[in-house]
């Protein structure tokens, strides 16, 4: 092992040990950004960037499992991304499908689709639903796969479902409006039943949410990393966790 590699490894181990005395997030949201730019900088086809990003997802989830992170939500494909060129979108869908197969092979992750499945090709929507059923109750990391996801659309869908349920039990709009509270909306979100994200990480240097978990991230801590997603290292992740552990969470106070 080269001397720089030894130094890197030692620093990573020291940083990980320092996290033992800090609180850890239960739920981490990740905007996996930078695959296309990574491919461009490498002089490679866009597809290779998306594949490198998919490989990093599997690696990242392994880190989370090792560190005891219980829930991870991965922003893999937004509703806005659905407007990309047909060829790139077809390649990306195929890579996502392959990634889902690899997640299923791991056998220790509970996978849940988060998004509007009706916007996806039928084969991909079916794969997500099948994987969710097959991995239900798995003991490891709970992985929310945000594909065909839009934060505004999630809130719209939640309100629609709430109103339809109320109508189905004989309720009326006035009574629903008068009694409506924050928890009522939360019970109809795609992530219902799960804790809100404590930490949201975005790679590639961009400092915006792009509609990711808009409702759920109201009191989340944010960490923006310059590394493009395929270049995101375990050391970068440990630094994000260290930064989170040092913050004083105020929850809006």
TrEMBL record:
Keyword S-adenosyl-L-methionine set for record: no
Annotated binding of Mg(2+), by residue: 33, 221
Superkingdom field: Bacteria
Cofactor(s) required for function per UniProt: Mg(2+)
Gene3D superfamilies from the UniProt entry: Decaprenyl diphosphate synthase-like
Keywords, in A-Z order: Magnesium, Metal-binding, Transferase
One Gene Ontology molecular-function label: transferase activity
Coiled-coil intervals: none
Cofactor notes: Binds 2 magnesium ions per subunit.
Record EC number: 2.5.1.-
Family annotation (Pfam families): Prenyltransf
Residues annotated as binding substrate: 34-38, 50, 78-80, 84, 202, 208-210
Role: Catalyzes the condensation of isopentenyl diphosphate (IPP) with allylic pyrophosphates generating different type of terpenoids.
Similarity comment: Belongs to the UPP synthase family. Z-FPP synthase subfamily.
Subunit structure: Homodimer.
Protein name: Isoprenyl transferase
Phylogenetic classification of the source organism: Bacteria, Bacillati, Actinomycetota, Actinomycetes, Micrococcales
């Amino acid at each position: 092992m080269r001397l720089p590699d030894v130094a890197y490894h030692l620093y990573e181990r020291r940083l990980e040990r320092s996290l033992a005395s800090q609180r850890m997030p239960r739920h981490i949201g990740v905007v996996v950004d930078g695959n296309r730019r990574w491919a461009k900088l490498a002089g490679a086809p866009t597809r290779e960037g998306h594949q490198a990003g998919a490989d990093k997802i599997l690696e990242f989830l392994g880190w989370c499992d090792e560190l005891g992170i219980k829930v991870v939500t991965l922003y893999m494909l937004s509703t806005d991304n659905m407007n990309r060129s047909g060829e790139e979108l077809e390649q990306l869908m195929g890579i996502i499908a392959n990634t889902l197969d690899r997640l299923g092979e791991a056998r220790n992750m509970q996978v849940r689709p988060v998004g509007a499945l009706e916007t996806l090709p039928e084969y991909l929507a079916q794969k997500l639903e099948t994987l969710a059923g097959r991995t239900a109750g798995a003991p490891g990391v709970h992985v929310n796969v945000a594909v065909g996801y839009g934060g505004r659309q999630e809130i719209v869908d939640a309100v629609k479902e709430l109103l339809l349920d109320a109508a189905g039990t004989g309720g009326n709009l006035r009574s629903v409006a008068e009694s409506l509270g924050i928890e009522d909306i939360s019970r109809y979100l795609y992530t219902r039943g799960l804790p809100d994200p404590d930490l949201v990480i975005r790679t590639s240097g961009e400092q915006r949410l792009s509609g990711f978990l808009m409702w759920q991230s109201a009191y989340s801590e944010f960490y923006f990393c310059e590394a493009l997603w395929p270049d995101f290292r375990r050391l970068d992740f440990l630094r994000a966790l260290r930064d989170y552990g040092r913050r004083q969470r105020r929850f809006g106070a």
